[in-house]
User: What shape does this take?
Amino acid sequence: MDCSEYDDRDEGVICPRCMGDGTVSCHCGGDLCVCDNYGERDCPVCFGEGDVSPEREAQYLKAEGEAMAAMRAAWPTPTDKEGGE
Ligand SMILES: [Zn+2]
Ligand SMILES: [Zn+2]
Assistant: This one.
């Protein structure tokens, strides 16, 4: 019973927010960062772990979906103007 190749960390999935990096871009923008994180900060979803529980992923995806729906409702034509700078 050689199970050495089996990775039993099946609790964790790749964090959907940072894609496993553990960090995300802050919204200050690199050199002009005003939060002292120099463009990166710990991922708020996985707290820098890079992976999350399936439950947490589902929770995040659901929240993200609701946020996007709210944005669409707020801005009837979201493609009208690309939010550049
Ligand atoms: Zn993350
Ligand atoms: Zn920043």
